[in-house]
Write a structure and sequence with these properties.
Helices cover about 35% and strands about 15% of the residues. α6 packs across α13, α8 packs across α9 and α10 packs parallel to α11. The structure holds adenosine monophosphate (AMP).
C-alpha cells in the first residue's frame, strides 16, 4: 500500500506529523508508544498484573484515534519496565493489550519490546521484524526518543514516518525553552547527582539568567565554596565543575538554610518497613550544617527566595526534587517549588521524573504549561535541541 507523505514536515522545525500523511485507508500503521504503565500484582507476583494508573494509555489514545479515523489499522509496540532482553511474565504487556482491545477491537499489540535484546542493541533484525507488513511508522514515545533503540531509530529508514501528537507537543514546548525563552529564564535544578546535570548546565549556562540549585546536588556546590555540609551527600568528582559554574557571570542561588536529620536518624525508606515515618531528630540549620547532620531538604527561607525568583521569571524549567521528598519530613521544599511554579505567570515546564510526580501528587499538574513525559529525554533535548528519535524522523528519506 502506498502511503503518501508531504516532502516537508509541517510540524515544529520541519518535523513530519500526522497531517502530512495521505491515503491511509486500509494501511497498517506501526505505532511506537510509551505504554510503560505502573502495574500492581494484587494476586501475587506470578499472577496476572493489574494496571495501577492508566494515564500513559490515555495520553497515547489521540494519535491512535486519529489514525483509525483515517481508516488505518494499528500495530502498537512499547517497552514496559526493564526486563533487559529476557522474557519475564511480570513485564508482559498483556494488561495493556486487553485495555487497548476494549477501545480498538482490531488492534495488534506486540509483546514488550525489551524482551528482545535486539531492541536496546538497535539490531536491524529487530527493526525488520517490527515493520514487517507495515505501511508507515508513527513515533509517539517521547520518553525514549533519547535512546537509539531499534523501535525508535530503525523504522524511519524503511517506512514513511511521522511524529505522533505527544512527540509533537513535547518538541513544541521544549523548543520554546531552548530557542525562545522569554526572560528572565530561571532554571531550577535538584535531585541527587551533579554529574547528571553537567551537560545540561554546560549547554544552558549562556541562555539562563538565574539558576536555583537545591536537592542533594546543592551540597557539592556548597562544599566547592568551602561551606560545612556535615554528612550530606557529595559528589567529589564534580567539585571542579561546580567551581567553574560558580565563576560564570550568571546568578546562581544556593540554599542558605536546610532541614537536616541527626546522625542516628533513618529515612522512612531506610527503616526496612519498621518505621513508615522514619526516625531521628529533624532540625533547621542556617548557612552551614553541623558535622554529624545530613541535609535532606531546603529550609523555609530558601523556599521563599526560590519562590520569589520563580514569580519574577518569564520562563522556568524545573528538574529534580529539592529534597528527599519520598520521606514526608523532607518534602516541603519540593512542594513549595511546585506551588510557586503553579502560581507563576511564567511559561513553566517540568522535566519529568520525580518533579512531575511531586506536582501530580499535589494535584497542580493542570497549572503547569508543560509536564514532560520524559525525564531523561527532556534533559537531553534541552542539551542538544534534538534527540536521536527526532533526528531519525527528520532524516527519513521516504
Ligand atoms: P535524581 O535521580 O538525580 O533526579 O535524584 C532524585 C533523588 O534525589 C530522589 O530520590 C531524592 O530522594 C534524592 N535527593 C534529593 N535531595 C536529596 C538530598 N538532600 N540528599 C540525598 N538525596 C536527595
Amino acid at each position: 500500500m502506498n502511503v503518501l507523505i508531504s516532502s516537508c514536515g509541517s510540524g515544529p522545525g520541519g518535523l513530519p506529523i500526522l497531517e502530512d500523511l495521505q491515503d491511509l485507508d486500509g494501511c497498517l500503521a506501526l505505532v511506537r508508544a510509551d505504554l510503560n504503565v505502573p502495574l500492581r500484582y494484587p494476586h501475587g507476583p506470578d499472577k496476572p498484573a493489574v494496571i495501577a494508573d492508566d494515564f500513559r494509555i490515555q495520553k497515547a489514545l489521540p494519535t491512535m484515534r486519529w489514525l483509525t479515523s483515517q481508516g488505518a489499522r494499528l500495530r502498537v509496540c512499547s517497552h514496559l519496565g526493564r526486563p533487559r532482553g529476557v522474557v519475564e511474565g511480570k513485564y508482559s504487556l498483556d494488561p495493556v493489550k486487553i485495555r487497548l482491545q476494549e477501545i480498538f477491537p482490531d488492534i495488534e499489540v506486540l509483546e514488550n519490546l525489551r524482551f528482545d535484546p535486539g531492541e536496546e542493541a538497535n539490531s536491524p533484525e529487530t527493526t525488520r521484524r517490527l515493520i514487517a507488513g507495515c505501511d508507515l511508522y508513527i513515533n509517539d514515545a517521547f520518553g525514549v526518543c533519547h535512546r537509539k533503540h531499534a523501535s525508535i531509530v530503525g523504522p524511519p529508514g524503511f517506512l514513511p514516518s511521522v511524529a505522533g501528537r505527544l512527540v509533537v507537543r513535547e518538541v513544541e514546548m521544549l523548543s520554546r525553552v531552548v530557542h525562545d525563552p522569554k526572560g528572565p529564564f530561571v532554571l531550577v535544578l535538584g535531585g541527587s547527582k551533579v554529574s547528571d546535570k553537567i551537560a545540561l548546565l554546560d549547554s544552558l549556562i549562556k541562555k539562563v539568567d538565574t539558576i536555583l540549585i537545591g536537592g542533594g546536588m546543592s551540597f557539592t556546590f556548597l562544599k566547592a565554596q568551602g561551606i560545612e555540609i556535615g554528612q550530606s551527600i557529595v559528589d567529589n568528582a564534580s567539585l571542579e565543575f561546580c567551581r567553574s559554574i560558580l565563576k560564570s557571570n550568571r546568578t546562581i542561588v544556593l540554599p542558605n538554610d536546610f532541614r537536616a536529620l541527626s546522625s542516628d536518624g533513618e529515612l522512612s525508606s531506610e527503616c526496612g518497613g519498621k518505621s513508615p515515618t522514619g526516625t531521628g531528630e529533624v532540625r533547621i540549620f542556617k548557612t552551614a550544617l553541623d558535622s554529624d547532620w545530613r541535609g535532606l531538604d531546603i529550609g523555609p527561607e530558601t523556599q521563599q527566595v526560590f519562590a520569589a525568583e520563580i514569580e519574577k521569571a518569564g520562563t522556568v524549567f524545573w528538574n529534580g526534587p529539592m529534597g528527599v521528598f519520598e520521606d514526608r519530613r523532607f518534602s516541603k521544599g519540593t512542594e513549595a517549588i511546585g506551588r510557586a511554579m503553579a502560581s507563576s505567570k511564567a511559561f513553566t515546564v517540568i522535566g519529568g521524573g520525580d518533579s512531575a510526580r511531586a506536582i501530580r501528587s499535589l494535584g497542580l499538574d493542570e497549572e503547569i504549561d508543560h509536564l514532560s513525559s520524559g525525564g531523561g529525554a527532556s534533559l537531553r533535548f534541552l542539551e542538544d535541541a534534538t534527540l536521536p528519535g527526532i533526528d531519525a524522523l527528520l532524516k527519513d528519506g521516504h
